[in-house]
């Protein structure tokens, strides 16, 4: 888990070192720099495997040089393959396996890799740079490109300079999503390499070409019994956890009150020869606190458990760190307790397992179930549903009017699915969803609307929200997080299962629950899930109110392109009066205001 950098722009060494030092938290164990021909390489190392300096980067083999961030979990298997072909190894790291694997197979190394990765390899013979990013987009990959000049980095901040300009289109997308999805970034001429893609740069011709090596496939449901499916999934999970336990530094596991982290921790506990370390964040507000359930899990699996209670002041103290680490506007407020959790975890371990990814594959998120609710009204002709929108159903159902209008006003399931992920109550004056062209694949992958919603969750939200939150929060404390549920084998396997194995009569993640019952009694884990969230709505009305009001002034609001200021002010007023919860809208704008101040850039 590291930070990578490579450029053909003729910066001085001290300039590149300063760039890397701005994100030094990604790899405090070594800062590496080399210049070869017209290319400058930089690397920040967080030592996990082979702690010796021989595995520092940039790393060379023959005519190749690599900078690599991540972990290749099956590197030992690939190493054996290469040894059979006559290769010898000087280190015990996955970096050496990766560069020698590329030397042997070229881009065909990518399907062999099981891991989280972002890397760039320079081939001095061909004068090319080959880059790739893992299937799920767990590891970040930013690049600047203009007329053949490029910079590649694990984070945005080192690429930003005084001449950088804010991309208006990206701001508009952020107003809907609360994050900026790939291939976009908040900065003009800076992009994200999409997950499961590789990029080839011809340095002589000053051209780049981006291609795909992995994506979700159209769903083909297997003819498999429930018991067979449960057995096969259990074996996959055990292996996914096992290969993520490889580490030359202390390792632990995050443990919430949810079933995914409980199952990961339970499997790890059974595999490990010694009791594992588990870590939980609790909240003073009982409506959000799962720490008592997590403590029960820890007692049953016999882990060394550390619990940290998060109050308003604890989370809000993370605000300045949040703005510096999440160097794009990012409105997932659970990033604050995530930062706190990782700062505590780092005191004990350097690597932590997590349960991220289980909800996407096994239908755990409540917002996916809106698709099921839509089925109940989809028989009503669209014109009649539009007419029904004129009635104040939200008062009867005690929910926000935008949500009801969004569901009733959707022409079909696909439009509803898009609205779930792009806001029922857009803050844009004119909503432009043309950027969704990069994610339209979800429409043709599955017959079942619920599966299509889960697929868009994987392609859009997982990469750009969940993985960003985990990567930046963990890296801020130099912690590496590994997520067994994000193993591509599990994601591919889950999509071949009948939906009823995963979601059945209102029971979410059924098959995962049944596997967990082999480790933890059902009566312990079968409790309402509260989610890893903070009481943001209350904090906005109280602890954060003064700062919110000061930041969201007219001068700032008028600087936000395409913002419906009148609509936002109405939402903010209703929230402060405690009539409706518009905390997400307010938080989005608040985070954007903090980002504006941090980077002090002009609009394009």
From TrEMBL:
Glutamine amidotransferase type-2 domain boundaries? 2-204
Family listed: Belongs to the asparagine synthetase family.
> Which positions are annotated as binding ATP?
281, 354-355
Which catalysed reactions does the entry list for this protein?
L-aspartate + L-glutamine + ATP + H2O = L-asparagine + L-glutamate + AMP + diphosphate + H(+)
Named from the GO MF annotations, one term is: ATP binding
The yes or no answer to whether the keyword Amino-acid biosynthesis is present is yes
| Sequence ranges assigned to domain Rhodanese in this UniProt record | 82-114
Official protein name in the record: asparagine synthase (glutamine-hydrolyzing)
Q: List its EC numbers.
A: 6.3.5.4
Asked if the keyword Nucleotide-binding belongs to this entry, the reply reads: yes
GO cellular component terms, semicolon-separated = cytosol
Q: Give site residues, Important for beta-aspartyl-AMP intermediate formation.
A: 356
The top EC class is ligase
Q: List keywords of the entry alphabetically.
A: Amino-acid biosynthesis, Asparagine biosynthesis, ATP-binding, Glutamine amidotransferase, Nucleotide-binding
């Amino acid at each position: 888990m590291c930070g990578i950098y490579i450029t053909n722009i003729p910066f001085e060494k001290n300039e590149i070192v300063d760039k890397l030092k701005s994100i030094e938290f990604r790899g405090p164990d070594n800062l590496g720099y080399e210049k070869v021909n017209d290319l400058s390489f930089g690397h920040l190392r967080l030592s996990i495997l082979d702690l010796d300096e021989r595995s520092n980067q940039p790393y060379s083999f023959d005519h190749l040089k690599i900078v690599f961030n991540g972990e290749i979990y099956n590197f030992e298997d690939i190493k054996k393959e290469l040894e059979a072909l006559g290769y010898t190894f000087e280190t015990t790291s996955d970096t050496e396996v990766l560069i020698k694997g590329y030397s042997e197979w070229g881009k065909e190394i990518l399907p062999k890799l099981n891991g989280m990765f972002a890397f760039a390899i320079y081939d001095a013979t061909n004068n090319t740079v080959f880059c790739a990013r893992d299937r799920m987009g767990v590891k970040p990959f930013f690049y600047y490109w203009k007329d053949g000049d490029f910079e590649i980095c694990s984070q945005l901040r080192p690429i930003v300079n005084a001449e950088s300009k804010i991309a208006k289109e990206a701001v508009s997308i952020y107003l809907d999503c609360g994050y900026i999805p790939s291939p976009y970034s908040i900065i003009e001429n800076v992009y994200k390499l999409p997950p499961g893609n590789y990029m080839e740069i011809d340095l002589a011709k000053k051209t780049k070409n981006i291609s795909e090596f992995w994506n979700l496939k159209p769903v083909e449901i297997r003819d498999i019994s429930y018991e067979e499916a449960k057995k096969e999934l259990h074996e996959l999970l055990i292996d996914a956890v096992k290969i993520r336990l490889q580490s030359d530094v202390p390792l632990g596991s995050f443990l919430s009150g949810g079933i995914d982290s409980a199952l990961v921790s339970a499997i790890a506990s059974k595999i490990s020869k010694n009791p594992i370390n588990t870590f939980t964040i609790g909240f003073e507000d009982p409506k959000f606190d799962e720490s008592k359930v997590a403590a029960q899990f820890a007692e049953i699996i016999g882990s060394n458990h550390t619990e940290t209670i998060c109050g308003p002041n604890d989370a809000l103290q993370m605000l300045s760190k949040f703005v510096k680490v999440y160097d794009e506007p990012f409105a997932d407020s659970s990033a604050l307790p995530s930062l706190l959790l990782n700062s505590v975890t780092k005191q004990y371990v350097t690597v932590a397992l997590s349960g991220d990814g289980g909800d996407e594959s096994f239908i755990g998120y409540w917002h996916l179930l809106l698709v099921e609710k839509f089925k109940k009204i989809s028989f009503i002709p669209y014109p009649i549903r539009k007419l029904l929108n004129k009635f104040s159903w939200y008062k009867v159902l005690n929910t926000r009017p935008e949500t009801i209008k969004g569901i009733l006003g959707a022409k079909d399931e696909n439009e509803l699915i898009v609205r779930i992920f792009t806001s029922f109550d857009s803050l844009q004056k004119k909503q432009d969803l043309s950027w969704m062209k990069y994610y339209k694949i979800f429409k043709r992958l599955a017959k079942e609307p619920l599966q299509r919603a889960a697929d868009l969750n994987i392609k859009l939200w997982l990469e750009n929200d969940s993985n960003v939150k985990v990567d930046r929060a963990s890296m801020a404390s130099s912690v590496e997080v590994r997520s067994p549920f994000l193993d591509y084998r599990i994601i591919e396997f889950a999509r071949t299962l009948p939906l009823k194995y995963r979601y059945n009569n209102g029971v979410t993640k059924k098959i995962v629950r049944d596997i967990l019952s082999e480790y933890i009694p059902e009566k312990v884990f079968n409790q309402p899930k509260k989610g890893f969230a903070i009481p943001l709505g209350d904090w906005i009305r109280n602890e954060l109110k003064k700062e919110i009001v000061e930041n969201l002034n007219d001068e700032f609001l008028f600087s936000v392109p395409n913002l419906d200021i009148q609509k936002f002010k109405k939402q903010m007023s209703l929230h402060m009066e405690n009539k409706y919860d518009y905390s997400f809208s307010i938080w989005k704008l608040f985070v954007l205001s903090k980002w504006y101040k941090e980077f002090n850039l002009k609009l394009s």
